[in-house]
């Protein structure tokens, strides 16, 4: 996508062909800063600190992290230690472990001197594949938006999204935003309600930023406004992303997604989830009981960072001194509340049979 008119991805190889460039998303929307990852430790910390975030981008970063590790130690022990280090950074998004599995498969049986080149080749391919997948998600999701526009006689299509499942969460294009960008670029009249997405405010700081840069009309709303908007007929469909989808179609996404799905179900608003196939975890069936939910530091809830009127960047406390806070990063939306899954192979039902039929090479008969 574009930043100030210039195309960019979220992650890339630098001109030296070995170190990795990425965007420090912790500083958006007020500062656009790129950083260079030079070591395994750099890549692991980038994921852990949410300098990079979003399931597909975490996977791509982990893949490049393996490359950086092999520059220092291409032995079996070095490879295993690198994957173990990266696997511990974030527990919920399945793309991280998928990417590490891909990297292991690409280099494990090669002689030590051939591993580094093979690792970079597979990491580059993972990044390119993510872009192609997201473009396909955009094409399949476009049909949903076009159908609503047709029913409204060409009237504006109103979309609600939660958190950031845009190009900043992937290598490029995005998942939930892919149909939005595709429809906008085709000239359809649409508007996006952007949930602020407390406590890290990824909607306010990231989704609103990237939609604005691309020229997509959008309005930032408080997290709890979605149900009200749906009650009053102001939302035509909800599109969100996901960090993990189970074999039976349960969806794990940013905290608050479940509440949006309940409101959509109660008001007859279609609720779609956009996802690349590496986000499907065929080893897990019951999302509520089986998916580990990341609990993050309470300072994300009690503190808030922002830009002051005179241009300074400050972090302030918004809760009483000494009060404790709980900070669950994700929740699970049961498949029964999901209208459909927008994948690179089409819009499919959130069921075990539909997922296995669409991705037989990954389901293993699940």
Automatic annotation (TrEMBL):
GO terms of biological process kind: L-methionine salvage from methylthioadenosine
Cross-referenced SUPFAM superfamilies: NagB/RpiA/CoA transferase-like
Record bears the keyword Transferase: no
Protein keywords: Amino-acid biosynthesis, Isomerase, Methionine biosynthesis
One GO MF term: S-methyl-5-thioribose-1-phosphate isomerase activity
Pathway membership, UniProt: Amino-acid biosynthesis; L-methionine biosynthesis via salvage pathway; L-methionine from S-methyl-5-thio-alpha-D-ribose 1-phosphate: step 1/6
Catalysed transformations (reactions): 5-deoxy-alpha-D-ribose 1-phosphate = 5-deoxy-D-ribulose 1-phosphate; 5-(methylsulfanyl)-alpha-D-ribose 1-phosphate = 5-(methylsulfanyl)-D-ribulose 1-phosphate
Site location (Transition state stabilizer): 163
EC number: 5.3.1.23
Active site (record annotation): 243
One Pfam match: IF-2B
Broad class of enzyme this protein falls into: isomerase
Superkingdom assignment: Bacteria
Positions annotated to bind substrate: 53-55, 90, 202, 253-254
Role this protein plays: Catalyzes the interconversion of methylthioribose-1-phosphate (MTR-1-P) into methylthioribulose-1-phosphate (MTRu-1-P). Also catalyzes the interconversion of 5-deoxyribose 1-phosphate and 5-deoxyribulose 1-phosphate. Part of a bifunctional DHAP-shunt salvage pathway for SAM by-products.
UniProt-listed NCBIfam families: eIF-2B_rel, PRK05720.1, salvage_mtnA
Family designation: Belongs to the EIF-2B alpha/beta/delta subunits family. MtnA subfamily.
PANTHER family assigned: METHYLTHIORIBOSE-1-PHOSPHATE ISOMERASE (PTHR43475:SF1)
Name of the protein described by the UniProt record: Methylthioribose-1-phosphate isomerase
Organism for this UniProt entry: Rhodoplanes elegans
Organism placement in taxonomy: Bacteria, Pseudomonadati, Pseudomonadota, Alphaproteobacteria, Hyphomicrobiales
Primary gene name: mtnA
